[in-house]
Amino acid sequence: MRASERSAGDDEAFKKELVGLIPHLRAFARTLTGDPTAADDLAQDAMVKAWDARASYQMGTNMKAWTFMILRNQFYSDRRRSWRQSQLDQEAAERTLVAVDDPESPVALDELRLALNGLPAEQREALILVGAGGFAYEEAAEICGCAVGTVKSRVSRARRALQGALERGDYERDGQAAGDAMGSILAQADRLSGAG
C-alpha cells in the first residue's frame, strides 16, 4: 500500500501500536548496546524508520517482530559504519578508574548480568529474545534474519556458556555497583513485559 492510499485512521492505528512498543524497543536496544543513552538513541532511530516505512507494514501482523528487526538492522548498520571510529568513552573510563562495588557482598543477579554481557552478541541476542522477550523461536528467527534451528542453537549455546561462566566466575566487572543489579534487571524485565 502506498503512503497516499493510507487513511488517517491507518496512521493513527499504526502510531498507537508503535507507541505501545516503546518499552520493548528500549529494552531490546539496551541488551544490544549495553548503554542506556545509546539504547535510547537506537530505539528512537528504529521508531523513526518504522514510521517512515509504515506503508510497507501489514496491519494485523506482528509489529513487535517487525520493529525489532528494524532496530536490530539499525544496530548492526551503525556498528559497521563506526568500526573505524575511536571507542573512547570518558564516562566509562572514569567508572573503570573508580571501583564502586563491594567485593564482600556480591549479588548473584549482578553476576548473571555480567556473565550475560560476556556472551557473543548473537547468542546474547537470541537468549534475550527467547528468554526475556518471550518470543517464540520462529519470531526470534524472523527478527534475527536466520533459520529457526540457528536460533535454537544460539539459545542452547548461550545457556551453556552462561552456566559455565557463572560456575567459573568467568566475567569481568564493569564498574557498576553490585547492589544496583536487582533494580536494573527488574526494570529491564518490566520493560520487556510492557509493565514499565
UniProtKB/TrEMBL annotation:
Family from the record: Belongs to the sigma-70 factor family. ECF subfamily.
Gene3D superfamilies: 1.10.1740.10, Winged helix-like DNA-binding domain superfamily/Winged helix DNA-binding domain (1.10.10.10)
SUPFAM superfamilies for this protein: Sigma2 domain of RNA polymerase sigma factors (SSF88946), Sigma3 and sigma4 domains of RNA polymerase sigma factors (SSF88659)
Domain of life: Bacteria
Protein name in UniProt: Sigma-70 family RNA polymerase sigma factor
Record-linked CDD domains: Sigma70_r4 (cd06171)
Pfam families: Sigma70_r2 (PF04542), Sigma70_r4_2 (PF08281)
Domain RNA polymerase sigma factor 70 region 4 type, first and last residues per copy: 110-162
Occurrences of domain RNA polymerase sigma-70 region (ranges): 23-84
Annotated PANTHER family: RNA POLYMERASE ECF-TYPE SIGMA FACTO (PTHR43133), RNA POLYMERASE SIGMA FACTOR RFAY-RELATED (PTHR43133:SF25)
UniProt keyword terms in alphabetical order: Sigma factor, Transcription, Transcription regulation
